[in-house]
Design goal:
Length: 109
């Protein structure tokens, strides 16, 4: 993921979602402000297998690529991304880490 994120930033330096770790600590304040109590969070990580083609498609569809770049820039990103995967991550499929994160609380009476 880090290599893909660096490539997205190379092609789209203004991408605002870089560096996200899959948690949302600000949501504690949101729920507390709405009156929720007994707030707790938990997370777990899983490795999700993607073929190179599927990972390229998943990333192409992301906000940092197809939703923000011109078609020509998306094409350039795609070519560089495919080359990166082939060179640095030749195993296909590859395991991509994903984090599941939850925040639970007691609703106000």
């Amino acid at each position: 993921m880090a290599a893909t994120e660096a490539l997205i930033l190379k092609h789209n330096p203004s991408w605002a979602l870089a560096g996200v770790d899959g948690t949302h600590p600000a949501w504690f304040a949101d729920l507390a402000g709405a009156g929720f109590t007994d707030l707790e969070s938990f997370s777990f990580d899983v490795a999700v297998p993607y073929s190179h083609a599927d990972w390229c498609g998943r990333i192409r569809a992301s906000a940092g690529v197809a939703a923000s770049l011109t078609p020509e820039r998306v094409e350039a990103f795609d070519a560089e991304h495919a080359a990166l995967l082939a060179q640095r991550f030749p195993d296909d499929p590859l395991d991509v880490p994903h984090r599941a994160w939850a925040l639970v609380g007691r609703a106000p009476d």
